[in-house]
Design a protein that fits this description.
Length: 176
């Protein structure tokens, strides 16, 4: 059972805590909209310039960007976070941008497929050299190219040679 002195000290502590709380509550409370408005603008040049602030947020820290937004930015972003342009809107504008970014035809879908086929052919030749015991050098590292079929037995080597001859004969017949 508690003594009266302990109860009195608890009441005094409670009274002191409520007084401190009332002092804190008397201070003006900033609303959500005022905080949002504070984050919308940034004061520069010792209070002489008030401009819009970039609204981009860091994905790692969650902090807002400290740079001023570009004046012509529709998204209220700085130049590092996409404030300069939102891209072309018309089909003609998109075609113009696509033609400006066209470099060469070496990376076309057909050329990438031809490169993959030749890489698969070289990988099969290397595998056949190992099966026939023609080399002991380390094998090529990395992923297998698209269209690669493994060569593991002498029968697979024989089938690969037959397929190459059929492909070569078919190609010569088409050109004639």
């Amino acid at each position: 059972m508690r003594s009266f002195h302990a109860v009195d000290s608890l009441l005094e502590d409670y009274a002191l805590a409520t007084e401190q709380l009332e002092e804190i509550i008397d201070t003006p409370i900033i609303s959500y909209y005022e905080i949002y408005a504070m984050n919308q603008y940034i004061i520069l040049a010792g209070g002489k310039i008030k401009c819009r602030r970039c609204l981009a947020r860091s994905t790692r820290t969650g902090q807002q960007c400290q740079r001023p937004a570009l004046s012509l930015s529709q998204t209220q972003r700085c130049q590092f976070h996409g404030g300069r342009s939102t891209g072309p809107k018309t089909d003609e504008g998109r075609r113009r941008i696509a033609s400006a970014h066209y470099r060469h035809g070496e990376s076309s879908k057909a050329s990438r497929q031809a490169y993959s086929q030749s890489s698969a052919h070289l990988r099969r030749l290397e595998e056949s050299m190992y099966v026939l015991g023609m080399t002991t050098a380390p094998r090529t590292r990395g992923r297998k190219p698209l269209g690669y079929t493994p060569v593991q037995t002498i029968h697979d080597v024989h089938q690969m040679v037959i397929d190459l001859e059929l492909h070569r004969n078919r190609g010569s017949n088409e050109g004639a």
